[in-house]
Amino acid sequence: MKDILAGVRVLDFGRYIAGPYCAALLAEFGADVIRIEKREGSEDRFQLPMNEFEECGAAYMQVNRNKRGMTLNPLKPEAGEIIKRLVATTDVVVANLPTKTLAAMQIDYESLKAVKPDIILTRVTAYGDGGPYSDRVGFDAVGQVMCGTAYMTAEGEGERPFRHYTPWVDFGTALHCAYGTALALLGRESTGRGQVVEGTLLGTALTMSNALLIEQSVLGKDKKPYRQPCGNRSNYGAPGDIFKTRDGWVMAMALGQPLYQRWAKLMGEDHWLTDPRFKDDVSRAKNSKVISERMSSWCGGRSSAEVVDILGKAMIPAAPVLSPQQTLDDPHVQAVGFMQPVDYPGLPRKAPVAKVAVALSDSPGSIRQRPPTLGEHTNEIMGEIGFSADEIQSFRDNSII
Q1: How far apart are the C-alpha atoms of 72 and 56, rounded to whole Å?
Q2: Full DSSP string of 23-62
Q3: Quick one: pLDDT band at residue 1, thresholds 50, 70, 90?
């Protein structure tokens, strides 16, 4: 079966992660994605640089594979004809830019529809339209700290909270937008109409923390926090924490009665099965300090490998806390093939780029090509939309491409 999105063209005006990764997800399944960058390179190209000869950031490697790249200064009046010709051949435009910027670049929905009536605009904003924060800009961390989850990472009330190192709000928003774009393409087949697909960083964060917010609304009294910050400890049962071993750290978690029963027997604490302090997950969460101390004592005399092996045989979820290098070296990560080595000019070695984390049996998608160097395909794309070699050179001479 051919790639599901073969024949679909996407213009990617994305920045940083949410927009570009949305487009990368579409490219993975066959879409022809053209990444439009500033003439000097877009911001994500320079984040976590890995290459002293050509700017190439680690995030850029991940979110721009399978794309062709061209440079363009869309704010110059002469760029208008280039944008129109590009849009005329395009099915989807992806942009995480402010509303005013979209209009200035002539890629707002009304401008796009005037060129191609059935076009789909997929856009990402920080806060969404219609509220007091709508004109503000924001990054992943905005969603993390506003949705309640960062608050919960502190070791106790009033202690310092932490945001997560991984930009999960950005990637979650990209996933939502790719899903919405696929639905819009499917809908267009039956209606013949395009539409706007909008994702928001705050909306993604609120979705992923929704259970915490539902609980607070229903059970919180006088609007005081129902759940107290708990660091790594689970608020929903016990044991559920990261525990020190003889040579490292492991995560172990037993939620639900069957898992807890197996854990208590493994610890030799059979009498805890009838202890009212530990009668259910809610009770165990309230008394998690006692359970965590017991688990810490058991783990402390064993290696991480021993802990994970014993708990695994008892069918209790557990895993070692790995460093980035240990993750790369992990035998399961390597055996399943989650990563694909991808080269890039000037890198000392190929970069392990994670494939899309969903597999389709008949059309699995693939990483077919490395991310583009800055403006690598500009001439090629300009020729495809009808510009002559002399016209292309003139655009270059005038700093438009």
Answers
A1: 18
A2: HHHHHHTT-EEEEEE-TT--GGGGSSB--SSS--BHHHHH
A3: low
Q: Write out pLDDT tens, residues 369-397.
A: 999 999 999 999 999 999 999 999 999 99
Question: How many whole angstroms separate alpha carbon 354 and alpha carbon 368?
Answer: 13
What are 125's strand-pairing partners? 200
* Tokens 């502190």, residue located: 154
Amino acid at position 207, single letter? T
CB atoms within 10 A of CB 196: 15
Torsion of CA 137, 139, 143, 149, to 10 degrees: -150
Other residues' Cβ atoms within 10 Å of the Cβ of residue 271: 9
Residues with Cβ within 8 Å of 286's Cβ and at least 6 positions away in sequence, in order, are: 277
Alpha carbon dihedral 261, 266, 271, 272, in 10-degree steps, equals: -60
- For residue 364, give every residue at least 6 positions away whose Cβ sits within 8 Å of its Cβ, in sequence order, or none: none
Phi, psi of 249 (to 5 degrees): -140, 150
- pLDDT-derived band of residue 264, with 50, 70 and 90 as boundaries? very high
Both tokens of 101, joined, read: 């910027």
How many angstroms separate the CA atoms of 141 and 45, rounded? 20
Residue whose C-alpha is closest to residue 107's, from 75, 147, 68: 75
- In the block, tokens 């008949």 appear at 362
Taking a C-beta distance cutoff of 8 angstroms, is the pair 105, 24 a contact? no
Q: What average pLDDT does this structure show over 94-123?
A: 94
Q: State both tokens at 332.
A: 């399961």
DSSP conformation class of 161:
P
Q: Provide the 10 A C-beta neighbour count for residue 397.
A: 9
**339-352: per-residue pLDDT in tens?**
999 999 989 899 99
Cα separation of 91 and 188, whole Å? Answer: 10
73: DSSP letter:
-
282: tokens are: 């809610």
pLDDT for res 54: 63
Q: Which residue bears the tokens 């209606």?
A: 191
- CA dist 122 and 337 (Å) reads 31
Instruction: Report yes or no: 181 and 26 within 8 Å, Cβ to Cβ.
Output: yes
pLDDT of residue 116: 97
